[in-house]
Model the fold of this input.
Amino acid sequence: MTMPIPLHELGELQLTVLNALWTLKNATVHDVLGFLPEEERKPAYTTVLTVLRKLERYELITHEAVEGSRMHRYRPIISPQDVREDILKDVLTRLFAGSPALLIKYILQTEGFSIAELRDIKGMIETQEKQIILRGGQVSFSSNLRD
Done:
């Protein structure tokens, strides 16, 4: 058994396969292949199988045998929120000196947002302000990366 991998070290195909499993809930290799976005060339069945086996060794997914066949159904053990949180903490530390404000400013300056998205973001900021005021100005560092 392999030790769990730091989530921010997952590769692009590993994250794509995890996204497929989060969406499908449980899936065979063929299901995952069918879910992958159309690109110039999809990975081979054996490549996806290897990725699934690695993710299982990293203790991020598990599998069950499909009764009456040699196939397996894979399902995620880890949530998308846990992966997002780990990757975002890594990006914050390595690229933004640990400052969420620098990250948010960068995103606001470089990404295009609709009016509705900006209003939603503004509402989140106002909610955070109210919570800080209710706590007497104390900032809480609990995870707010959950949907």
